[in-house]
Design brief:
cell membrane; 6 helices; elongated; 211 residues; Connexin_CS; de novo design (two linked rop proteins); Connexin_CCC; Gap junction protein
Length: 211
């Protein structure tokens, strides 16, 4: 995936954001997207290959891995980052639409006011688009925090998991590759997601208060 293009689009939203929105965007780009691209993908690159079970029964390791890792952390985080940033792109599209509309007005001799001022001073549809984008971003992060908690209790990976699913001949011990390092990255991503939720809600309260 071209994360550079993704980052460039997000940076274009920065000039239309409030101070809280700029902090949120910096947090997403530096502490979530950059950490994901530079480090997290490499940490989970060997999760299936180095998932070892103390049995040679064909298919046992694959079944146990699929049971304990129904969805990879990396794929969940990628989907989370895409969904949580889509509302910002919608705001950018709305602003571009209103700018084009203003340009058509000026071309027709109407010196209409510019319609892409500070988000806290916006009125009408753009104000609602921005506010709903904040609520959606917070809801996406909360939803993924819940999904991670359901899949991986307390967001933690054990060192050893016991599996007795067919075709395993009996209860076998399976060992996860580098669980401590993965738990540290998971905790980091969970904390940054929580901070982003707080920032989105604070910015929404700020916009409503300025309204």
């Amino acid at each position: 995936m071209n994360w550079g293009l993704f980052e460039g689009l997000l940076s274009g939203v920065n000039k239309y954001s409030t101070a809280f929105g700029r902090v949120w965007l910096s947090l997403v780009l530096i502490f979530r997207l950059l950490v994901y691209v530079v480090a997290a993908e490499r940490v989970w690159s060997d999760d299936h290959k180095d998932f070892d079970c103390n049995t040679r029964q064909p298919g046992c390791s694959n079944v146990c891995y699929d049971h304990f890792f129904p969805v990879s952390h990396i794929r969940l985080w990628a989907l989370q980052l895409i969904l949580v940033t889509c509302p910002s792109l919608l705001v950018l599209m709305h602003v571009a639409y209103r700018e084009a509309k203003a340009q058509r007005r000026r071309a027709n001799g109407d010196d209409g006011r510019r319609v892409h001022l500070e988000p806290g001073k916006k009125r009408g549809g753009l104000w609602w688009t921005y506010l709903l984008s904040l609520v959606f971003k917070a809801a996406v992060d909360v939803a993924f925090l819940y999904i991670f908690h359901r899949f991986y209790r307390n967001y933690a990976l054990p060192r050893v998991v016991k599996c007795e699913l067919p075709p395993c001949p009996n209860v076998v011990d399976c060992f996860i590759s580098r669980p401590t390092e993965k738990n540290i990255f998971t905790l980091f991503m969970v904390v940054t997601a929580c901070v982003c939720v707080v920032l989105s809600l604070v910015e929404a309260a700020y916009l409503v208060g300025k309204r």
